[in-house]
Amino acid sequence: MTLAAFAVWLLAMTAAAVWMTRYTGIPGPAENAPEHWPAQSTIGLNRTNFTLVMFAHPHCPCTQASLGELERLMARTQGRMSAYVLFLQPARLPASWAETSLRRQATAIPGVEVQMDADGTEARRFGATTSGDAVVYAADGSLQFHGGITISRGHEGDNTGLSALVALSRGQPLETTQASVFGCSLFETQCRKTGHP
């Protein structure tokens, strides 16, 4: 009886581990960002430098890693990139809903301006649907990069998105202009906690 119970437990744990490993590597849906800076956007495009805009869900656990990588990016680009983090703020929920540790983490990153995105209006303008999605535009308003800057859900470390943006800021050739985004859906008020680190 004990051996059978152990076998069932082991099978369940193995299945859960396989599912979680698979889940961490599944990116959000790939969407198209506009090729040129949206004219109706209320965010200020830097006319002398690159402008990065990251869209974030204030309750997505995976976004902590995206913000960690953004902090590394800002340190490595040394003022060659303006950056914004826009947090979802549904109109039907109080402002306190978005007052989370993620917002405080973003606010603490030097060179990053944090704003609230009312009902995801700006996210929709830029084609973002997943928390951690970032777009980068040149001074002339042309799209340079769209995607994520983490290696998988909730995991920091060397990744193609971060490397591409560092290269872009230094005027070096880009290996890629797109990267997978790992995070919660931007437009759901409750993030799915199962499977997140």
Overview of this structure, please?
The protein is α/β, with parallel strands linked by helices and 197 residues long. Helices cover 30% and strands 18% of the residues. The protein has a six-stranded mixed sheet with strand order 3-2-1-4-5-6. Helix 3 (101-107) links the parallel strand 2 and strand 3 (112-118). The radius of gyration is 18 Å and the shape is globular. The chain starts with a helix and ends in an 18-residue tail after the last strand. The model is unreliable at 7-29 and 193-197 (pLDDT under 50).
Q: What keyword list fits this structure?
A:
197 residues; alpha/beta; 6-stranded mixed β-sheet; 6 strands; globular; disordered C terminus
Helix content: 25-40%
Radius of gyration: 18 Å
Major sheet characteristics: 6 strands, mixed
* Number of strand elements: 6
SS-derived structural category = alpha/beta
Unreliable sequence segments: 7-29, 193-197
Distance between the termini: 34 Å
The arrangement of helices and strands along the chain is: HEHEHEHEEHE
Strand content: 15-25%
Give the overall form: globular
Number of DSSP helical runs = 5
Biggest β-sheet: strands ordered side by side in the sheet:
3-2-1-4-5-6
What is the typical, i.e. mean, pLDDT?
Answer: 82
